[in-house]
């Protein structure tokens, strides 16, 4: 069935914007008094309301009688939404003065979430993931990557990825699973970090591949996690197994983004401590630069150099890193608004970083733009001026969310 929706006061299509480098607001393609036409889950046309109402005279049109700005659904490329337990103790220690790495060395950190997640039943994890995913959807995130990494044993990692798969099937949001068994060496593994990675490579990854639970593999290469040498070993073997790659890189120490480029990773994520040389290398590669302002806020550390990455030519993506430890907020629009103000990112750059450039970082080329042939994922904001969205710093949320051609909020 063909249906049309409109008129919208403004439509930001995000079409005809380059995948990499800086973007001025003059490059935004804005259609005034716009409409969108859908067939099933796909967009078949965008244009002015008057034009499309005439062109599709037999279609059912949903009439919008209030000022609205329409734009593509948001894409969050880096989250850890599936966890059990809480890290509020860690947070209270951090705001009292302890560092993330100090807390981890004293038995806090990721291992607290590993214990809580292992103890949680599948149904409990499904319920928690469902609540988080639905909140994200209500705030405009129509595609969301979700990592494992709080199991760190074959049984628990498979449990998490099955939960992500089952929850994604049940909800009107696309959940993209990533295996992060190479998060840290868990507290109960008797052996070296390299021996743990070999366990992941030989036991966990093949089983995940066989069960078709994930096509993406991630590793945390940094102080307190895995060395550059161990990271190189893991990436080489994961690539042989057919996984697409992404890396937690350059959060506390440098070098991870260089590995991401060398092994053709889809993205290098974090980048708070990226060196000048590695910034240039990343910017001139096909690897997306994913910055995580929620983590900077949660840890009280500097933002990644988003402005410099863009000016050097990178494909900049903004994501939440929503997790129980360093980034518990999980509000993509708010976080994008804050880093845009702090680093002087244009509206066009900020919106690109949470729509089509983000989709490309997940190797998804059917969303993030409103044009013929793309998925019917779009948002309606209760305003007549797209600039109000960032101006309100995350407090102006969409009042209508459409996923795959259906209104879900």
Summarize the structure.
The protein has 409 residues and is of the alpha/beta class. The protein has 16 helices and 16 strands. Strands 1, 2, 3, 4, 5, 14, 15 and 16 form an eight-stranded mixed beta sheet that branches. Strands 6-7-8-9-10-11-12-13 form an eight-stranded parallel beta sheet.
Explain what this protein looks like in three dimensions.
The chain has two domains: 2-72 and 369-407, Urease, subunit C, domain 1 (Roll), CATH 2.30.40.10; 75-361, Metal-dependent hydrolases (TIM Barrel, Alpha-Beta Barrel), CATH 3.20.20.140. Helices cover 38% and strands 22% of the residues. The chain contains 16 helices and 16 strands. The strands form two sheets. Strands 1, 2, 3, 4, 5, 14, 15 and 16 form an eight-stranded mixed sheet that branches. β10, α9 and β11 form a beta-alpha-beta unit. The longest helix is centred in the middle third of the chain and has 18 residues, at 193-210. It is globular.
Write the SSE topology:
Layout: E1 2-12, E2 30-39, E3 42-48, H1 49-55, E4 60-63, E5 69-72, E6 74-76, H2 88-95, H3 100-105, H4 110-119, H5 122-138, E7 141-147, H6 154-170, E8 174-182, H7 193-210, E9 216-221, H8 228-240, E10 244-249, H9 256-262, E11 267-270, H10 276-283, E12 288-291, H11 293-299, H12 306-312, E13 316-318, H13 332-343, H14 347-353, H15 356-361, E14 378-381, H16 387-391, E15 400-403, E16 406-407
Parallel strand pairs: 1-4, 1-5, 6-7, 7-8, 8-9, 9-10, 10-11, 11-12, 12-13
Antiparallel strand pairs: 1-2, 2-3, 5-14, 14-15, 15-16
């Amino acid at each position: 069935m063909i249906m049309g929706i409109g008129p919208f006061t403004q439509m930001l299509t995000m079409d005809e914007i380059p995948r990499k480098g800086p973007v001025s607001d003059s490059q935004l393609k804005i259609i005034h008094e716009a409409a969108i036409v859908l067939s099933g889950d796909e967009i078949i046309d965008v244009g002015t309301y008057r034009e499309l109402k005439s062109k599709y005279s037999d279609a059912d049109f949903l009439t919008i009688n209030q000022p609205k700005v329409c734009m593509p659904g948001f894409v969050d490329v880096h989250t850890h939404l599936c966890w059990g337990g809480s890290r509020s103790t860690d947070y209270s220690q951090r705001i009292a003065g302890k560092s993330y790495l100090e807390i981890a060395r004293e038995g806090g950190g990721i291992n607290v979430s590993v214990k809580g997640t292992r103890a949680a039943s599948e149904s409990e994890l499904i319920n928690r993931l469902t609540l988080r995913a639905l909140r994200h959807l209500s705030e405009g995130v129509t595609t969301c990557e979700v990592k494992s990494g709080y199991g760190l044993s074959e049984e628990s990692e498979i449990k998490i990825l099955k939960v992500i798969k089952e929850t994604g099937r049940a909800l009107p949001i696309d959940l993209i699973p990533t295996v992060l068994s190479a998060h840290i060496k868990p507290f109960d593994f008797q052996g070296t970090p390299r021996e743990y990675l070999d366990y992941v490579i030989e036991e966990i990854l093949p089983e995940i591949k066989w069960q078709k639970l994930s096509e993406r593999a991630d590793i945390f290469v940094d102080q307190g996690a895995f060395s550059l040498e161990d990271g190189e070993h893991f990436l080489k073997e994961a690539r042989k197994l057919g996984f697409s790659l992404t890396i937690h890189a350059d959060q506390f120490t440098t070098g991870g983004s260089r590995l991401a480029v060398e092994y053709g990773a889809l993205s290098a994520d974090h980048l708070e401590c990226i060196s000048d040389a590695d910034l240039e290398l990343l910017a001139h590669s096909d690897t997306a630069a994913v910055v995580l302002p929620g983590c900077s806020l949660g840890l009280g550390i500097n933002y990644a150099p988003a402005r410099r990455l863009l000016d050097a030519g990178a494909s900049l993506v903004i994501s939440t890193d929503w997790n129980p430890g360093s980034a518990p907020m999980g509000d993509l629009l708010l976080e994008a608004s804050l880093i845009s103000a702090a680093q002087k990112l244009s509206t066009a750059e900020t919106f690109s970083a949470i729509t089509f450039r983000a989709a490309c970082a997940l190797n998804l080329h059917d969303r993030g733009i409103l044009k013929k042939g793309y998925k019917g994922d779009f948002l309606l904001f209760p305003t007549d001026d797209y600039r109000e969205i960032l101006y309100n710093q995350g407090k102006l949320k969409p009042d209508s969310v459409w996923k795959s051609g259906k209104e879900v909020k």
